[in-house]
């Protein structure tokens, strides 16, 4: 059985792919070999914190371009 550390690393990789690379849930699940349901759960936990991170990152990228 994989350790908690293993799952923590998978989740971190999924986070980076979602937030920084803009990959979809399906793309991430295929890339790191976990279920779409797991990735979706990670994206939506903690009041959809990953989605907020994406919006924050996009806002700051956009503001850099316009200034």
From TrEMBL:
<dbReference type="InterPro" id="IPR036388">
    <property type="entry name" value="WH-like_DNA-bd_sf"/>
</dbReference>
<dbReference type="InterPro" id="IPR009057">
    <property type="entry name" value="Homeodomain-like_sf"/>
</dbReference>
<protein>
    <recommendedName>
        <fullName>Helix-turn-helix domain-containing protein</fullName>
    </recommendedName>
</protein>
<dbReference type="Pfam" id="PF13384">
    <property type="entry name" value="HTH_23"/>
</dbReference>
